[in-house]
Every structure is written in C-alpha cells, then in structure tokens.
Design a protein that fits this description.
Blueprint lengths: L15 H20 L11 E6 L5 H12 L3 E6 L11 H11 L3 E6 L4 H8 L3 E7 L5 H15 L6 E5 L6 H12 L3 E5 L15 E3 L2 H5 L4 E4 L15 H8 L3 H4 L7 E3 L12 H4 L7 H21 L9
Parallel strand pairs: 1-2, 1-3, 3-4, 5-6, 5-8, 6-7, 8-9
Helix pairs in contact: 1-5, 1-11, 2-11, 3-4, 5-6, 5-11
C-alpha cells in the first residue's frame, strides 16, 4: 500500500493503517541496522536538507544518520549563520530552498505551523521535526515503535504521560497516535501545566502522580520546558520533583513490568531520578534513541516514493 500523504506534518489526522505502515517499515529498518548492513541506495541522487531553527541533538543527528544510511546527500543548514538570522522571512527561505530543488526537507521551528507553511510553498516533501507546542510526529512514532516492540501491541495499554503537558509537542503527538491505535492515555501534572483543551483529546487527567500511575503499563516522562514559559507555572525544581518527578516510590504504583520513557534531554532530579532513568529492567530511554533512526529512515523512505508536486501546482 502506498503511503497516503505527501508530507509528515502531524500525527493528528493519520489513520491506523498509515501509522501501522510506518511502524512496520521502521521495524524492518531496526533489523537492517542491527545487521550492520546500513548503507542503501534507496535515496541515491536525492537531497535531504535539515533546517533547524531550534537547537537539537537527537532529532537532527538521527535524521542526518537516517538520510546517509539510505544513500541521500544530506545538508545541515545552520540557521544561526544563515540569512534567516539577518532578517529573511520564512517565505523567502522557502523560495531559496525551492530553487535548490531538494527532495526532502526536515524542519524544526519555534513557531507552531511553520512546517505546514513551508509545505505549501516548496516542492520537496516536508517532515515536521517539531514546531512550537504543536506536534513532533516522528517522536511519537519512535515512542510507539519502542512500546510495540516491548509489549507486542499498542491496543489496550494504559499509558501515563507525565509533567509539562502544556508546552509539549511530544505529548500532543503521542496522545493523537496512542488514542488512535487503541491505547488508554492519562496525562499527569500540576493544573498549571495541563492545557485547557486536554479534556477534549480523549485522555484522563490526573494531578496526583500516584493516582495517575496506578496500573499503568507505560510511564512517559516529559522535559520541563522553562524556556517556553512566559511566567512562573511551577514551584522550585525541588518541589516539582517532590510532587511530579518520577522516583522508585511513585513508579511502584504502576504495573511491575511498566516501562519508563523520556524523549530527552532529561533534567535528572527534576523530572526523573537517575536510578529510575538508568534502570536496565524498566527504562527504555536508550532504546528510544535507536528506534528514532529506524523510524526516520522509514519516513524518508515512504515520502521519497510519493509523487513530487510540480511547480505549476503551487
């Protein structure tokens, strides 16, 4: 089956068969990467541009590695030294990128909707690598792949997403994906960090960690994003950890085989205790990083096959 979308801008709106197709293909890339046969000719002759307006380590590096493993020519554009830093508008940037005739464009931007705008103006397939507080679709896909490989399914699992829900594009993408695939999702955090629209997303809302973690199969911690807060929304880091940080005592309320996840980077002692984060029996945080490369290979694969949009269609 052909992937139905030209771009990957969000998880919201994707149907289960499309999500399953991406996860199944990513699974094949996990096996390929582990076999050591990493170089493919699938994207030979195609150009991938990583355009990151925000700092990133894991996401940008894994897209770069994914592109190179598939044989693409990969270009990392440094926004801090580009014309954007000199006042160039996003639309001017789009025109410049289009003139370069790249095939795949990976975009991270601090404004929600920026990748969608670029997708309307360029011929390349656009992949959202995180936009503002909107979505981070490949993170949700790699989280889902990690869960499915460990638990054998997504349907019927109880997933607790904990911490800074309000500023987290990771939370939004995961909520859309997991509820679409049949998981029961809980969000846990202080009232100031739970968005007003949360009750319309099909999730259960908790403000107490112990109650929210009771019987959970998956515990997904989030980074406290102080850089996106315009005012003080939480007490001190020490108090935040006391009430909403994950330690062994709180984790004991989840199922005995519950998995612990975190998208990174971690603030140890704020969102999560080091003993929990590094527990080889419970933590799959390192596995998430590995799954990220495989998922991004799958996304680049399927989007490279979709018919390109001609200039007369823009």
């Amino acid at each position: 089956m052909q992937y139905p979308e030209r771009h990957l801008l969000a998880i919201e709106g994707l149907h289960p068969p499309a999500i399953a197709q991406l996860l199944d293909l990513a699974e094949s890339y996990v096996l390929l990467n582990r076999s050591g046969k990493t170089q493919r000719d699938l994207l030979r002759g195609k150009t991938l541009i990583n355009l990151f307006f925000e700092d990133s380590t894991r996401t940008r590096t894994s897209f770069e590695l994914a592109g190179k493993r598939l044989g693409a020519d990969v270009i990392n554009m440094s926004v801090s030294t580009s014309s954007v830093n000199k006042g160039e508008t996003l639309l001017d940037t789009a025109a410049t990128l289009n003139a370069m005739q790249c095939d795949l464009l990976v975009v991270r931007h601090d404004q929600s909707g920026a990748p969608n705008l670029l997708a309307q103006k360029v011929d390349a397939a656009v992949i959202n690598a995180g936009d503002g507080t909107h979505e981070h679709p490949t993170q949700a896909l790699l989280d889902a792949l990690t869960i499915r490989r460990r638990k054998g399914r997504l349907e019927g699992l109880t997933v607790a997403i904990c911490g800074d829900i309000g500023h987290s594009r990771v939370a939004r993408s995961n909520i859309h994906l997991l509820t679409t695939m049949g998981s029961r999702v809980r969000v846990i955090g202080p009232p100031t960090l739970i968005p007003a629209e949360a009750d319309r997303l099909g999730v259960d809302i908790f403000h107490d960690m112990r109650a929210g973690l009771a019987g959970a199969d998956i515990v997904m911690m989030l980074r406290l994003q102080r850089e996106r807060m315009t005012r003080s929304l939480v007490p001190s880091a020490r108090e935040f950890f006391r009430f909403w940080g994950l330690d062994a005592e709180k984790l004991a309320f989840a199922k005995p085989d519950a998995l612990v996840m975190h998208p990174g980077p971690m603030n140890r002692g704020v969102e999560i205790d080091s003993a929990v984060a590094d527990d080889p029996a419970r933590s799959v945080i390192k596995e998430q990083v590995e799954m990220g490369v495989a998922v991004r290979m799958a996304v680049l694969d399927v989007l490279s096959r979709t018919p390109s949009r001609g200039r007369n269609e823009r």
